[in-house]
Structures are given as C-alpha cells and as structure tokens.
Specification:
- By secondary structure, this protein is mostly helical.
- The protein folds into two domains: 32 residues; 218 residues, MetI-like fold.
- It is 82% helix and 0% strand.
- The chain is built from eleven helices and no strands.
- Helix 10 runs antiparallel to helix 11.
- The longest helix is centred in the N-terminal third of the chain and has 33 residues.
- The chain is globular, with a radius of gyration of 22 Å.
Amino acid sequence: MSPNMSSNAIRLVRLLLILGVILLWELYARMVATSSFSAAPSQVLAQLWPKVLGEPNVRFAIGITLIELVVAFVMSVVFGMLIGVLVGLSDIGRRSFYPIVLLLYGIPQAILLPLFVLVFGLGPASKIAFGFTHGVFPVIVNTIAGMRNVNPLLMRGAASMGATKFEQLRYVMFPHMVTAVFTGLRLAMTMTLLGVLLAELFVSQGGIGYFTLLYAETFNPAALIALVLTLALLAIILNELVRMIEARFSRWKE
C-alpha cells in the first residue's frame, strides 16, 4: 500500500469514527437520555448561532476570555523560558532550583483560587494570574528538559571556536531544544486556557466561564454543549497555531 493510500485510509477511518460517534450520540439523546440533562447533536447545532455565536453578550465574553488567555499565555512563555534557561544553564541551578519547580508544579492549584481572588480581586487580573500559574510550569519544565538533551560536545566545540554564551545558546542550544520547548508551549496553551476558565467559573461575572455556569444552572444542555464545543474548537485552533510556529522553527531538521 502506497503512503498516499495509507493516509487516505486513515482519514476515512477517522471520519467514519466521528460520524459513528455523532450518530450514537443523536440516538441516545433522542431515545434514552432526559432532555433536561442532555441534547442531541442536531439540537446543539440549532443552538450554536442563537445562543452562542449570535448572542452579543456571549461574543463579548469570548473576546474577554481571549484577551485574558493571550496575556496569561505570553507571560507564561516569557517568564517560563527565562526561568527555564537560567535554571538549566548550570548543573548547580538544576540541582538547586529544579526540585523546587517540580514541587510547585505538583500543587493542585484549584485550592489556591481563593488566594488569587483575595490578592487580585474579582476582575481580569485574577483570571490572568491564575492562567499564568497554570501555563508557566510546563514551559519551565520543558525548557530545562530541552537544554539537558543538548549534547555537551556541541557546546564545548562552539566554545572552543570562540562562541560567546549567548551565541552558544542561540546557534547551538536553542535549535536542539525546539521540540521540547514547543511541547511545553502546547501544554502551556491548554493549561492556561484551563486556568482562565476555572477562574471564570467561580469568580467571574463575564467571560466564557460565566455563561458555561449560567447554561448549566438553567438546565440548557444544548446551549451548554454548543459553548463547550466552541471552546474545544478555540483550543484546537490555538494549538494548531503553536504547531505551525514550531514547524517554522524546525525547518533546519529537514
């Protein structure tokens, strides 16, 4: 079987699987489930425009969430890579600070949400800060992991030819840590979105999280699922953007 035929077969199987799941979902929602707690795909699609994309307040909420997400993600990338590089440059830094990073990374951050509200209030700052703390640790951990995977012989070879520390980092280390760093960025994007939405669910009067909670409390499953699918599509688009940037930085491997 040629590679093209194999690729087409995989796409066909994937499409059939998705269609099968949608069909089973439709049958279950129509024939078995209670209408107050479930909705068929056709009902979700019918609610997508009037209750989600066509509702000005929801569109405004999506805009608020996107702004909070972008700010938190950019902060996570900048501070995460900076801390990761500073910790990963030396063996002493890795031994001294890396265990502390892992300890903080392992703390369930949901229990700290009241503290964020106390410090930053109910406005966007608390959502941005909560999203930042969710996204920064994957960047730090994967940046350090990427630096550890660089062959020390390459660094010594560059140093012997007169390369400065910055040149070693720019021309030797960074190209070899691209895969690990962008793995961290994709994780950070997902985790930042999760942090922002969690904060909005509990302390916000706006944003997507607020309307998610509103539709759940008013027993409107079709609108709720439509909003969740919109969030899923948003997450897929953002991760694809990061993947495209990764492909651009990884051209040297080809």
